[in-house]
Amino acid sequence: QEVAYLLQRMEASEGITILATNLRGNLDPAFARRLHFMIHFPDPDVPTRERLWRHHLAQLPSTDPADPVDVEMLARDLEIAGDRVRNIVLAATYDAVAEQVDLGMRHVRGAALREMSKLGRRVSGSSWSGA
Q1: pLDDT in tens, 55-100
Q2: CB count, 10 Å around CB of 71?
């Protein structure tokens, strides 16, 4: 029913319609046949994830020098897109603010484990076992 409504709206439109999904496998085949182009945006690689982590962490006024954030480990171990990196940094920041301390790796680790849990993924590696 929703697909039929969306198709009806697309056919009534005279302009370009852009749709986005992260669940391409759930697209109805009949619906997918009506799309002229499908563009795949791959998940970021390790160097790109590292840049994403550094960018989002640079927005903070300060971090805890006694508990530095291990950006290289985060980029290597967490295979996630930029929106998830942002979510983790934001959640970790809230945790640090609630404690009235500067953000440290302990906050990022906790937020990352919660975010990965929401995705239904586990994090492997010796750096995560003690968290």
Answers
A1: 999 999 999 999 999 999 999 999 999 999 999 999 999 999 999 9
A2: 17
pLDDT of residue 63: 96
Phi, psi of 52, rounded to the nearest 5 degrees: -65, -45
- The answer to whether the CB of 111 falls within 8 A of the CB of 88 is yes
Taking alpha carbons only, the member of 80, 20, 24 closest to residue 50 is 80
Q: Which residues pair with 63 in a beta bridge?
A: 103
Compute the distance between CA of residue 79 and CA of residue 121 in angstroms, rounded to an integer: 10
Nearest-angstrom CA–CA distance, 117 and 122: 7
How many Cα atoms are found within 13 Å in the side-chain-facing hemisphere of 63?
A: 19
Q: What SS3 class is residue 63?
A: strand
Cβ-based neighbours of 128, under 8 Å, separated by 6 or more: 77, 109, 113
